[in-house]
Design a protein that fits this description.
single chain; 487 residues; mainly alpha; 2 domains; 0% strand
């Protein structure tokens, strides 16, 4: 069982690298809304939505392809150098074209041209760090991965607080006069982007030694194989990004103008309470993805994959119930403005949707290890179509509830499709009965706690204790083997 101990150790470290930065960056939301009017904050939100979309295109599935071929090829140096040369060429081509057509691109994206220079450079710096980060994960160096990620977001956070809060106060108070030259009124958006640029630059600097190679080799045949593997992942990533951010755009387009931004704000704030499930699923994915590839050639890897999914569902079911039970406590911590609480009813739907997405990522092992990544694209496109259709037809009548339902429907469909086709192309002996039992009980208790008993904390806590006791009784021996190394 030492294999699983190693997996959970790496998942914990990757989780630390994911949880702490996102928790720190979460502090920036009240900072931004405090110092900027809604229009300026909307500009920032739009810029970062485009960041998410362009990051997918600039990565073009190379990260996942790198994992696959780094573990598959004997000549690992060829894989590293080919991937590095590919990302450098594509990134600098993008920078050149983006700067040449600077004003045209800004018009298409509806971004003020003043900010396009920052946007392009940040995108380039982040793109150049993709392969180095993949190399750290492929070579199982989670601690360095965690340190770099935490430094990145810690620096970003510190610079934002300095530029947006401290510098204006010092300017008004007449203190630290030697820093006054740095203060520019109504420069908040630029300050935010400058903070991001410095943090991204520091990240690339910390990871830069991966680029310091004596002999670069561009293997054209290998690169073509990597592209055939990675481009469907890019399509899937783009569709996934549509699932993540497009509902906000549709809310502002399909609701009456006088309430659109307000409703979208309530929805987005309450959506953030799914953060805990998202962080867990992301950390788990970061830990298991290299594991999937490195053990795909071992004897009967399907049994290990099935066990990993069982553990994910157990832990995820606990988190689902825990977040729903303590939703009213969490809102007091993260959403202190009561004006947003009207949308709290979406929380169970969004947390469950995030759980389904996490299960989908676990189930996706079959098409990754069999080089059928096109199925990932098909599933994500199906989810994106559901997202757009449900939002488009139902937002005018039920508002942001349509967005929550669309998110659950999209990720639930993707999960079911991956399970169905996985049984056909790469059968994995999942314990379907146990998975549905834990998932079903968690959903039932969550619904009873939140909707039937009106979020009563005492009753919800009792439900959670009962569920934890049930898990302990059923999984006690297996948990002892993993964490106490008892064989």
């Amino acid at each position: 069982m030492s294999l699983f101990q190693k997996l959970f150790k790496q998942t914990f470290i990757y989780g630390l690298a994911t949880v702490l930065p996102r928790m720190l960056s979460f502090i920036l939301v009240p900072v931004f809304t405090r110092v900027m009017p809604p229009g300026a904050y909307g500009e920032v939100t739009l810029i970062y939505a485009w960041f998410a979309i362009f990051n997918v295109f600039l990565a073009y599935g190379l990260e996942t392809a790198f994992f696959r071929f780094y573990n598959k090829n004997e000549n690992k140096e060829n894989v590293v150098s080919t991937a590095l040369l590919s990302i450098v060429f594509s990134t600098f081509s993008f920078v050149l074209l983006a700067l040449l057509f600077h004003n045209t691109l800004a018009g298409y994206l509806n971004i003020d041209p003043r900010y396009m220079g920052y946007v392009v450079i940040i995108l380039a710096l982040d793109a150049l760090a993709i392969v180095p980060f993949a190399w750290l994960r492929a070579t199982e160096r989670p601690m360095r991965y965690a340190v770099v990620k935490i430094v990145n977001v810690g620096l970003n956070l510190g610079l934002n607080i300095y530029f947006l809060l401290l510098l204006p106060q010092w300017q008004q108070g007449g203190t630290l006069a030697f820093l006054h030259w740095m203060y520019v009124p109504d420069y908040e958006i630029s300050y935010i982007l400058i903070s991001n640029l410095i943090a991204s630059g520091m990240t690339l600097l910390m990871m830069g030694r991966v680029y310091l190679r004596k002999n670069y080799v561009f293997d054209k045949i290998l690169w073509k194989r990597m592209m055939r593997y990675g481009l469907p992942v890019m399509i899937a990533g783009f569709a996934y990004t549509i699932n993540e951010v497009f509902d906000r755009y549709l809310l502002t387009e399909l609701l009456p103008a006088e309430i659109a931004k307000s409703e979208m704000g309530k929805y987005s704030a309450c959506y953030k309470l799914a953060l805990f499930m998202t962080l867990f699923a992301t950390a788990f994915r970061l830990g298991i993805e290299p594991f999937f590839f490195s053990h795909s050639s071992t004897e009967q890897p399907q049994r290990a994959y099935a066990q990993i999914t069982n553990y994910f569902v157990i832990l995820g079911s606990i988190i689902l119930l825990g977040v729903v039970v303590f939703a009213d406590v969490l809102k007091l911590i993260f959403i202190q403005n009561e004006a947003y609480w009207e949308a709290m009813a979406i929380v169970p739907l969004i947390v469950l949707a995030s759980f389904c997405l996490g299960i989908y990522h676990n189930l996706s092992v079959w098409y990754k290890v069999t080089d059928r990544t096109r199925f990932g694209a098909y599933f994500s496109i199906a989810g994106a179509l559901i997202t757009v259709a449900v939002n488009y037809f139902f937002i005018p009548s039920i508002g942001y509830y349509a967005s929550a339902i669309a998110t659950l429907a999209a990720y639930g469909t993707m999960m079911c499709l991956s399970y169905y086709y996985g049984r056909k192309y790469y059968p994995i002996p999942y314990n379907f009965r146990k998975i549905t039992f834990y998932l079903g009980i968690s959903i039932l208790l969550s619904a009873l706690s939140f909707y039937t008993f009106n979020r009563n904390l005492v009753i919800g806590s009792l439900f959670l204790l009962v569920f934890l006791f049930l898990v302990y009784r059923m999984e006690k021996e297996r948990l002892k083997k993993i964490f106490l190394n008892r064989t």
